[in-house]
Amino acid sequence: xxxxxxxxxxxxxxxxxxxxxxxxxxxxxxxxxxxxxxxxxxxxxxxxxxxxxxxxxxxxxxxxxxxxxxxxxxxxxxxxxxxxxxxxxxxxxxxxxxxxxxxxxxxxxxxxxxxxxxxxxxxxxxxxxxxxxxxxxxxxxxxxxxxxxxxxxxxxxxxxxxxxxxxxxxxxxxxxxxxxxxxxxxxxxxxxxxxxxxxxxxxxxxxxxxxxxxxxxxxxxxxxxxxxxxxxxxxxxxxxxxxxxxxxxxxxxxxxxxxxxxxxxxxxxxxxxxxxxxxxxxxxxxxxxxxxxxxxxxxxxxxxxxxxxxxxxxxxxxxxxxxxxxxxxxxxxxxxxxxxxxxxxxxxxxxxxxxxxxxxxxxxxxxxxxxxxxxxxxxxxxxxxxxxxxxxxxxxxxxxxxxxxxxxxxxxxxxxxxxxxxxxxxxxxxxxxxxxxxxxxxxxxxxxxxxxxxxxxxxxxxxxxxxxxxxxxxxxxxxxxxxxxxxxxxxxxxxxxxxxxxxxxxxxxxxxxxxxxxxxxxxxxxxxxxxxxxxxxxxxxxxxxxxxxxxxxxxxxxxxxxxxxxxxxxxxxxxxxxxxxxxxxxxxxxxx
Length: 592
Prior knowledge:
Layout: H1 5-10, H2 13-21, H3 37-66, H4 76-89, H5 110-118, E1 125-127, H6 132-142, E2 147-152, H7 158-166, E3 171-177, H8 180-187, E4 199-203, E5 217-218, H9 221-224, E6 233-237, E7 239-240, E8 253-257, H10 272-275, H11 279-287, E9 294-298, E10 314-315, E11 321-326, H12 328-336, E12 338-339, E13 345-350, H13 360-368, E14 378-383, E15 388-394, E16 417-422, H14 429-437, E17 445-450, H15 456-463, E18 471-475, H16 479-485, E19 513-517, H17 531-543, E20 552-556, H18 562-568, E21 573-576, H19 583-587
Parallel strand pairs: 1-2, 2-3, 3-4, 4-6, 5-7, 6-8, 8-9, 9-11, 10-12, 11-13, 13-16, 14-17, 17-18, 18-19, 19-20, 20-21
Antiparallel strand pairs: 14-15, 15-16
């Protein structure tokens, strides 16, 4: 065995370690499984000790090896910053099989683990779903750093509640989800003051409680009655707070949603505290938050008529999103008194049967403002939507691309302007009035799904002012008369009866692409001809108009025949998915 430093250094590694360990094993040489049990246990323990020591030696060697990698040249601060970004991309418990998320990076090597432990901010996002042990460990490692705590209060162990209360004073984000009564019970145990809290989210896990029935609870006074100086975002779902509460001051994000019945079945008496409140109390509460950027109020308005106070305007110059849901009088009364940027996204959902014409001036003014903004380029109309109508408009040209062939799926981009209103009579009159009030002239893409009777004249009344539409997606059987409207002028006259009709007079004169979805052409009857012959005739007449663009038609899940598609290809370019409808329908009434 080498006895000098030189021998240690110059020896072959394999020879050195094999030779070095042999003298350590002489004490157990000759021990076999047949020997006394105590001797066998002793020998195993000695070997385990040697293996543990060698494992530590190997870890030391790996640490030295990792120190020679290029990433080890990064300063600790830079590496910690990378971990912070990685934690945002891969949070713990993001999905099954990825329980630890970013924490696995600390298992790569000793240096990475040591750096992660040196920066408390990396552990500030407390993942309670990892269990009690990890919760306590992350809270310990975060030290005095402001932390974020999100948890479901349903059947939560008392220890979790105690930890949340214990660390409340250095919590900057607190999200407690669950039934309002359970959340209220937990909130009552929280300390009354926090100079650190910036984001507070309480209540239902649902994104929108408007259509959900349930009981609402009042936010406890120990939180509602305090002015939290750092609080900027407050979200209450199924919990309500008096509009005069100090907690509402200085917010940039205010969201109050209360449970109610379906929006188109009438709003439920959600919180008597709000119904008894005067409109001015709500108005002045919003005045105490002039820096609001997000304002979402659903089913939380005072009752009774709203007085139109000329000159009494609430200015919210930073507002980016306004979403109101409730009685038409409340939505209209509040919206008319707001002065907001033209870039603000507006969503109004009226839950009663009242005429919405009173809100047209606000919508028209808001939609026509913003000379420095992109023009309106996309529009979606759904009627009826649970006995109501929905109209949405976008300024982004690609807003409807992902869902153009899926009319029931909302686009991923929130509409810049959205109006929902109830119409139990299933009449298109209010929808046509709304279309005529809004600036649809610049719309280039439209997506319409209408399940009520819609004549060619109705189509022209709704979209006749949309002179820039180049692409249209039309769903349901009313699309047949939309095709007829395409062979007419904006005045409602068939182009076949006119001489020298020009494209400028043609309904949707710039339309070049038409997508028809879920249209059963077999159900449409005409007293003189079948639908397939008439539609081919209508498109042929349209193509006779001077400068009319060649039409490309895409057919998706439409009940048609192969022969009809062949005829249609004579007047337009056709893309067909091959669907001809349910066979049972074609065989209905046969004797077979």
